User: Fold these one by one.
Assistant:
Number 1:
Amino acid sequence: MKGVYRQLQNFMSVHEGCGPNAVAVDAVPPPSPEGYNLSACCDCGATFQRWVSAEDARHDMIFTTLLVSWN
Ligand SMILES: [Zn+2]
């Protein structure tokens, strides 16, 4: 599945109006090298969950950088 980063961006833009830093993003470290579970939730109760395979993670390398900057 491609475009996970784009989907997350979309989720965040949809919930931009919910408040500053309303959306919290978390990436669970993989128990195996196959990928990781990405989740985000908003103060309004909306959630975003995607499985990111290792291959997708390579494509979305910029996303990892973004996660680090958010922490
Ligand atoms: Zn929201």
Number 2:
Amino acid sequence: MAAQRKAVALISGGLDSMLAARMMLDQGIHVEGITFFTGFCTDGLHHMSGVYRDNTPTRNHAFWVAEQLGIEHHIINIVDEYKDIVLNPKHGYGANLNPCLDCKIFMVGKAQEWIREHGFDFIVTGEVIGQRPKSQRKETMPIIARESGADDLLLRPLSALNLPPTLPEREGWVDRDKLLGLSGRSRKPQMALAAQYGITEYAQPAGGCCVLTDENYTHKLQDFWTHRGKRDYEFDDILLLNMGRHLRPNNRFKLIVSREESETRYMEGYRKSFHHIKTVSHPGPITLIDGDDLTPDDWKLAAAVTARFSKGRDAAEVEVRMVPKGGEAELIRITPLKPEEVLKSWYL
Ligand code: SF4
């Protein structure tokens, strides 16, 4: 009897990769899932930090998909290596700072290393030709296969009939007749296939949780680079860009004001790396101050903004503790800003 073939499926948490993996399981392939932790996926960041909007835990879609499929799931941290993809994408960016084509090439390349090290036979992705304008086009499919080094060990079960047969198909490990020839942006065929499999719950529209595709996040990242004077980041930087309200009242400093309890707790871990302000007389946020050359008026403004977002927002005065990085704390009483005094133009 022929040995059971083994494939690794790139699991994004969306429906397409779930279906692709499921199709392979149906063909008797041993499938395990891989999800890469880039530092830019909100599901991964929530899971890692324990911080959720409105303090309401949300599903980690990739974990959930793997659980539904009943497959082993591997999370691979690529935060450091991924930096070069974000900073210097050979194929450029999409609509925002999303280097999708380079990202896919990199991830498939990492999967290729993984299958070599773990004795697996091929790689499966949920890519569909024409689904995404930048990275999922007919022309980009061979580029991903070639530049990742995976070549014909990369199988896209949902679009396979639109592509040349891969090694798993030619060798008969996978029955090509049972693969699909989907193309285009419509989600209807995937939804129909999900219904056939009895899959009724899945992330909409495709499970994308990557903040690099988000205009607002891109704006914050660009602002961060501009004020640091270089295009670079550490993991903590990109994590904080995804947390709190970001306000830049002037070029000397930016405020990161926590929005809820879990953020406040988490951001307190950064007290030693930033100047910070905390309300004392009323429950309220922690504000991290990114900037070193603050004037006394800047400190007062930062304190008044912090008070504005505290439970003392309507009080005549709020007591706050202002703590310079590595310095002595100072307690002051401050009048909270009125809502209209927190200018829209400050928000990043
Ligand atoms: S959306 Fe983000 S994770 Fe997905 S391919 Fe693009 S850059 Fe990569």
